[in-house]
Amino acid sequence: MTDARVLLREAGFHPKKAFGQNFLVADGVTRAIAALCVPDGEDACVIEIGAGLGALTARLAERARVVFAIERDRDLVPLLTRELSSERVHVVEADAKTTDFQELWARGQAGTRVLCGNLPYQLTGPLLQRATELAPMLHRVVFMVQAEVADRLVALPSSKAYGGLSVFVQAAFEVRKRLTVGTGAFYPAPRVTSAVVELLPHCPRKAEESEVFRLLVRRAFGMRRKTLRNAWRGLAESEQRLAEVALEAGVSLDARGETLDVTAFDRMARALNQTCPALKLNCCY
């Protein structure tokens, strides 16, 4: 595999800010990420989001049965194909937000299904959401994200970093922060430190991400300084009924949303669903 910077120079290609392109060039980091994605001896099919110039792809191919390298930048696809395309590596020109991952895993015919990637900052939220939706069919997710985002993903209730993103991702996954990666590992160097997180699906999920669950979480953190009594006002036919539902769910309305863990939001959503089944049709946030 040719060094990413050499590939860029030879192709006359310049990283695109619109695509958030900061190419991973540190071989030690790519090897460490590949080992997280595919432990020794595991039979895996890996889908890599945003393969870029293939530095990580090449290391994944040394460990997995098959790798589907997704890249949406059509200018990079010929370079990736020339350098890496083989029986084990399939370069896919596509947008990861809409790609049919299930079809790719079916093609891979491997025992373990892995999703990984160095996520562009502007797409981190949507791609984490896709991962939570895919959690039931996944064995492991390994993402490179901004260090600040990683801190939010692993944050515990009542901590400063804990918020809606923490709840939504922790509802589907056990989250582990595995590596901190400095700016020098990329070309061009980003302005912020990055981190690698490993997401392991809960089976069953800690919480069902229903419309009501999402509504409760968004209101709780959208009005972070308010008590849940105020943040959730109007979600039942009366304040008294809301208090009864909260009591049934074991949730104090005098608390703030940042103190509730995932299971507390889930209990409240289930109790509210039973009491107000039309809520998801009548309320929005």
Question: Explain this structure to me?
Answer:
It is a single chain. Strands 4-3-2-5-6-9-7 form a 7-stranded mixed β-sheet, sandwiched between helices. Strands 1-8 form a two-stranded antiparallel ribbon. The chain is elongated, with a radius of gyration of 21 Å. It has 285 residues and is an alpha/beta fold. α6 runs parallel beside α8 (164-172). Helix content is 40%, strand content 18%. The chain has 2 domains: 4-201, Vaccinia Virus protein VP39 (Rossmann fold, 3-Layer(aba) Sandwich), CATH 3.40.50; 211-282, Orthogonal Bundle (Helicase, Ruva Protein, domain 3). The longest helix is centred in the last third of the chain and has 14 residues, at 262-275.
Strand percent estimate: 15-25%
| Overall helicity | 40-55%
Query: Order of strands across the widest beta sheet?
Result: 4-3-2-5-6-9-7
CATH class of the largest domain: Alpha Beta
| N→C terminal distance | 48 Å
Please count the helical segments: 13
What count of domains describes the coordinates?
Answer: 2
The profile of the biggest β sheet is: 7 strands, mixed
Q: Looking at the structure, what is the overall shape?
A: elongated
Q: Over all CA atoms, what is the radius of gyration?
A: 21 Å
pLDDT < 50 runs, ≥5 residues: 280-285
Count of beta strands: 9
Question: Averaging pLDDT over every residue, what do you get?
Answer: 90
Along the chain, the helix and strand elements come as HEHEHEHEHEHEHHEEEHHHHH
- Name the CATH superfamily assignment of the largest domain: Vaccinia Virus protein VP39
By secondary-structure content and strand pairing, the structural class works out as alpha/beta
The CATH architecture assignment of the largest domain turns out to be 3-Layer(aba) Sandwich
The CATH topology of the largest domain is given as: Rossmann fold
